[in-house]
Design brief:
302 residues, alpha/beta, Rossmann fold, 2 domains, elongated
Length: 302
């Protein structure tokens, strides 16, 4: 992505430690979410490692002794083995916001740090059980696509992209998210999981693209927020720059009416995003820069 001049934010803190027990708990929660929302039957043909019984037959030389069924063996007096329907490998697509607004943060870390951590987690979960993970990064020129890869190459590819950082200020692309979602819709030929990680700020037209994706895939929207986006502090005159457009304004934060109006507009914007995701039946998780984001993600996916 060198042509888009991506760079790690100066105040980058990183996502923090990824506690393995929490990641394991998320694995269970994500699989439950996929099973509940993914349309159609995902059973694979043949036999293999899985949870659904395909066949119970007498033991043959060469069979894995770990598959011997104790109950059937005791009942018949002959060793029997259990064969299962294998779980079909799932492809996970991470749709990641790398626009300039993600470099904002006034609490424990930047929004980009939280997004990086969430992408790391879903990348790791995506390659389990012979799965693969692909990534579409948007918000810094044309969407960058990493095709799905399994095992370690998939995780390494995601990690390298995350290390490249975010876009500089002033590169406003109002339909970047919609373009990225449409790209995933064209590339994801088999039903899978799509995880959209974004602050959903100043994005237009994503509703229809996300709705189309939801028809064939299980979709999770991870919204990244910062507490200072919800209210202005009373600190007198402030000069504010919109990182997406580069527009500069000055406001007098000492005026209560200004602070109230700012809070009302932001609350309405976030409510609109939540309502639209609810209408599309997309699971919605909100992570803030002042939280233990991994613990909060697990709580919201339960």
């Amino acid at each position: 992505m060198t042509d888009t001049l991506l760079a790690p934010p100066a105040a980058r803190q990183g996502p923090g430690p990824l506690a393995e027990p929490l990641v394991e708990a998320l694995d269970v929660a994500v699989n439950r979410l996929v099973a509940r929302t993914l349309p159609g039957d995902r059973r694979a043909a043949g036999v293999g490692i899985g949870t659904e019984l395909a066949q119970l037959r007498p033991y043959e030389i060469g069979d894995d002794v770990r598959h011997i069924d104790a109950a059937a063996t005791a009942r018949t007096g002959t060793p029997h083995v259990r064969l299962h329907v294998p779980e079909r490998a799932l492809t996970t697509w991470i749709v990641l916001d790398v626009s300039a607004s993600m470099a904002f943060g006034t609490a424990r870390r930047l929004k980009a740090d939280v997004a990086e951590g969430a992408a790391h987690v879903f990348g790791r979960l995506g390659v389990r059980r012979a799965g693969s993970v692909g990534l579409v990064a948007f918000g810094a020129g044309p969407p960058r696509v990493l095709p799905p890869r399994g095992s370690k190459p998939g995780v390494v590819a995601v990690r390298r992209t995350l290390a490249e950082g975010v876009s500089p200020d002033g590169r406003h692309e109002s339909e970047a998210l919609a373009d990225a979602l449409r790209r995933v819709g064209r590339l994801a030929t088999q039903p899978g999981l799509a995880v959209v990680i974004s602050d959903f700020r100043d994005q237009r037209g994503w509703e229809r693209a996300l709705g189309s994706l939801r028809l064939r895939h299980s979709v999770l929207a991870v919204e990244i927020v910062d507490p200072r986006e919800a209210e202005l502090p009373a600190v007198g005159y402030l000069a504010l720059v919109d990182p997406e457009t580069g527009a500069r304004i000055e406001v007098n934060t000492s005026r209560g009416r200004v602070r109230r109006r700012f809070a009302e507009l932001e609350a309405a914007r976030r409510q609109e995003v939540a309502s639209e995701l609810r209408r599309l039946r997309v699971h919605h998780a909100v992570l803030s820069t002042d939280q233990d984001w991994l613990l909060e993600l697990g709580r919201q996916l339960r």
